[in-house]
Amino acid sequence: MSLWRTVSYWGTNKTENLHQMRNVVLTNRVSILIACFSFLLSILSTISFGFIYSSQLALGFAFIFILPLFINKAGFLFTSRTLLSVVLSLASLITSILDKFDYFLLEEFQYFEFRLTLLAATLFPFILFKLEEKKYWITALVINFLCLLLYDPAHELFGVGYYQMGLTGPNYYFLNYMVAATFFVIAASAYFIKHSFEKSENENQSLIEILHQANSNLKNQSQLLQAKQYELIQANNLIEKQRELIAQENTQLAGEIIEKNKQLTETNTELINHNNDLQQFSYTISHNLRGPVASIAGLLSLIDPAEFGPNNQPLIEHFKNSFNSLDNTIKDLSNIIDIRNKVTRIRQKLNLEEEIEHIKLLLDITDEIIISTDFKKAPEVYSVKIMVHSILYNLLSNAIKYRHPERVCQINITTTKENNFIKLLVEDNGIGIDMDRFGDKVFSLYKRFHTHIEGKGLGLFLVKLQVETLGGRIEVKSVPNQGSIFSVYLKIPENIGEQLIFENDVAKVYYDASIASLCCIWQRPHNIAEFEQVLSLSQDFLKAYRTPNWISDIRNVPQRNEADLNKIREKFRDEYLKLGVNKIAVVLGQEDYKVNARTQKREEIRNAYPVQYGFFDNLDEARQWIKNQIDSGT
Questions:
Q1: CA 277 – CA 192 distance, rounded (Å)
Q2: Cβ proximity of 568 and 528 under 8 Å
Q3: Rounded CA separation 422/38 (Å)
Q4: Which of 200, 283, 310, 415 would disulfide-bridge 378, Cβ 3.0–4.6 Å?
Q5: Are 115 and 148 in contact (CB under 8 A)?
Q6: In the prediction, which pLDDT does 489 show?
Q7: Euclidean distance between CA atoms 278 and 196, whole angstroms
Q8: How much is the pLDDT for 274?
Q9: Buried b (16+ CB within 10 A) or exposed e, 261-299
Q10: Which residues are bridge partners to 477 per DSSP?
Q11: For the chain, first and last CA: distance in Å?
Q12: Three-class secondary structure of residue 618 per DSSP
C-alpha cells in the first residue's frame, strides 16, 4: 500500500494547486491500472494463442501506458494527461491492424472488439481534464474520434480491410454509423455529468470561503470584545445595556455560523451524491445505448445465416446469443435508471376523494384529527398521479404535525375551477406561521419555523417544486396561533386525449386519459420483430399506469396475418391480463374486407386475449364505445 501511494503521488510536488494535484494522482493511478491490464492481457493472450502479434503488442503497450508516471515525475503534467487520453485509442488502432496479419487466427469478431476500447477511450479526456482546459480535452477527444473514423480506412491502407480479408457481411460499414452515434452519446453524457460535477464543486468551494470569512469576522469581534472588557466593567447602566446588545449580536452571529455549517454539511452530502453519480456513469451509458443496440438487433434479424456457409454458422449463432445477452443487460440497467430519474409527463384522470382516502391510510389519523372535504365543484383532475399524491401528502402531514396542542386538529380541503386551473384549498387551525418574519422563506429549501418540532424543512419546498413542474403555482396565508391556508393551483392540461408515448413509421402509440385507454395506430405493414417491439413498449406503459382499455387501429395493415401474430400475443397474454386489460376496441375498415374475410379477421383477433372486444369502422366509434362501457360500469 505504501508503494502504491508513493507512486501515485509522483509529480505532485511540481504543483501547489489542489485540483491539479488531484489530477496528477488520478493520471498516475489510471496509468498503472491500464498498464497492468495490458500486461495481464498479454499473458492471457500468450497462454491462449501463443506469442502472436497481439500478445507482443499488448506487452509493448504495457510499457507505453506506464510512461505518464515518469512524465509526471519530470514535471510535464499536461503532457502526461494528454498522452494518457489518446494512447489507448492509438494502441487499439495499431493493435487491431497488426492483429489481422495472423491469418490463421483471423475471426470476424476481431473487427468489432477493438471498437469497444476505442469507445471506452472517449471518457478519458473528461476524467483527466477540467472543462476549462479546453484545448487539451478537445484535442484528445478529436484524436480519439479520428481513430474511430479512420478505423476501416487504416485497415484498408495496410491491406487488411474487412472485405479485403474475404469477409462478406453486407451491412458491415453500417456499424460505423452506430459507433459514431455511440461516441457522441458517450461524449455528450460525459460532458454534462462533468459540468454538473464541477458546478457543484465550485459552489461547495464558495461556501467554504464564506465560512472562513465568517469565522474570521467572529474572531475579530471576539478580540474586540476582549479589548473592551475592562471598560465595560467600569461603565454605567447605559454601557451595560450596550454590552447586552453586543452579547445578543454575538449569539445571533453564532447561530448564523451554525446554520452555515449545516448548509456546508448538506452541500458536501450533495457533492458526494454527484460523485456517486459519476461513478455510476456506466448505468447512464447503458441507458443511452438502447437506441443503437435496438438498431443493430434489427440488422441481425435481417441476416440470412445460409449466406455465411456451414463453417460460420456457430460463429453467427454465438454472436447473436452474445448480442441478446448484452441487449437484456442494457434493458435491465435502463429500467433501474428510469425508475430513479424519470419524471413522467403522462396525465391521468385522478379522483381527489380517492387520493385523500389513500393518504389517510398512510397518516396516523386519531380522534383528535378531523379531515373534511368538499370536491363537488371539481371532483377530478388530470395530472401526474405521483406528484399530486406527494403534494397532498405533504400538506396534510404538515397540518397534522404543526397542529395546535390545545384544540382538535381541523383540516378542510375544497376544490374549485378558476380559469385554466383547479384550485385546491387546504385550510387548518394549527399553530400557523409568522408571515411578517418568514413570508419570503416559506417555500425555501431547509427552512423551518418551529424548531420545537422535528423536521427537515423539505416538505413545502418539494410541494412548490412539484406544483410548478405541473405548470401551476402555490400561495399561502397564515396567522400565528390561528392556522394556515394553502392555495394550490393545478393547471388543467390542454391535451389529454393524445399523449404521445412512442411513434415511428411502424406505429403510433399514445394515451387517452379521458377514457383511460392506450391507443395504437398501425401505420404500415410490419414484421414479427416490429410487432413484438410495439407490444413490449405497450407492456412497459401498462406496468406504470395500469390502464384497462386498449384501442388498436389496423386499417392501414389489412393484409397482416392475425393468426400468426397471435403466437406473439401469447407471450404477453398473462402479463396483460395481470395488469388489468379488460376491453379492446379494434378499428378495421369495411372496404378492405369481404363479409367472410371480415368475420374471420374478427374471430382471429378475438382468439388473442380472453377480454371484452368491440369492432368499429373509425376511431370515434371506438372511443365512444369505451366511454359508454366506463359510464355503465362494465
A1: 12
A2: yes
A3: 63
A4: 415
A5: yes
A6: 94
A7: 10
A8: 42
A9: eeeeeebeeeeeebeeebeebebbbbbbbeebbeebbee
A10: 485
A11: 71
A12: coil
Cell match 457533492: residue? 271
621/615 Cα distance (integer angstroms): 9
Measure the CA dihedral 202/205/207/211, to 10°.
-170
DSSP string, 91-157: HHHHHHHHHTT-GGG--TTHHHHHHHHHHHGGGHHHHHS-TT-HHHHHHHHHHHHHHHHTHHHHHHH
SS3 614: strand
Asked if 422 and 415 touch (Cβ cutoff 8 Å), the reply is yes
Helix (H, G, I), strand (E, B) or coil at 9: coil
Rg (CA), the chain: 33
Residue 61 confidence (pLDDT): 74
Q: Taking the mean position of all CA atoms in its chain, how far away is CA 117? A: 25
DSSP state of 493: P
Cα 321 versus chain centre, distance? 28
Report residue 280's pLDDT band, with 50, 70 and 90 as the boundaries: very low
SS3 per-residue string spanning 156-211: HHCCCCCCCCCCCCCCCCHHHHHHHHHHHHHHHHHHHHHHHHHHHHHHHHHHHHHH
Question: DSSP secondary structure string, 44-66?
Answer: HHHHHH-S-HHHHHHHHHHHHHT
Long-range contacts of 71-79 (CB under 8 A, 24+ apart): 71/11, 72/10, 72/11, 72/14, 72/24, 72/27, 72/28, 73/10, 73/11, 74/11, 75/11, 75/14, 77/11, 77/14, 77/15, 77/20, 77/23, 77/24, 77/27, 78/133, 78/136
Tell me the pLDDT band of 266, cut-offs 50, 70 and 90. Answer: low
DSSP 3-state of 583: strand
- List the Cα angle 210/214/217 in 5-degree steps: 140
